[in-house]
């Protein structure tokens, strides 16, 4: 995984929004799914503040969500066709980009992968170039 930090130089709102979307899509490409809390931490924001970014990505068809009964119907986000095409346009390798919702059905797999993501995003918060 190539770690791309957020740019402090961006001030123009559409550029900031695009950067947030690309960081989220890259994260979903790498880990296949994620939660709102992890995506918020990846962007260095609080969970409620990322709701608009996620809502716009859902509306634009960049991501999809599924709920899992084992996690109290928490929503997990994964790439949709629109997100895959944006990443492909950015030159990313999207050969492993397809995630089936039934793949996320196992509680142990979800808990393990979320724990890894939480740990990594926590470590990234101290990362400096």
Description of the structure:
The chain is mainly alpha-helical and 129 residues long. It is built from 5 helices and 3 strands, in the order H-E-H-H-E-E-H-H. It has a 3-stranded antiparallel sheet, with helices on both faces. Strand 2 (63-68) and strand 3 (74-79) form a beta hairpin. It is globular, with a radius of gyration of 14 Å. The model has no long low-confidence stretch (mean pLDDT 85).
What class, by secondary structure content? Answer: mainly alpha
Percent of residues in beta strands: 5-15%
The run of helices and strands is: HEHHEEHH
How many helices in DSSP terms?
Answer: 5
Q: How would you write the strand order of the largest sheet?
A: 1-3-2
Please tell me how large the radius of gyration is: 14 Å
Outline type: globular
* Alpha carbon gap, first and last residue: 15 Å
Supply the key terms.
129 residues, mainly alpha, 3-stranded antiparallel beta sheet, 5 helices, 3 strands, 49% helix
Provide a concise account of the structure shown.
With 129 residues, the chain is mostly helical. It is built from five helices and three strands; from the N terminus they run αβααββαα. The relative contact order is 0.17.
What topology does this entry show?
Elements (H helix, E strand, L loop, with lengths): L12 H19 L2 E2 H8 L7 H9 L3 E6 L5 E6 L1 H9 L17 H18 L5
Antiparallel strand pairs: 1-3, 2-3
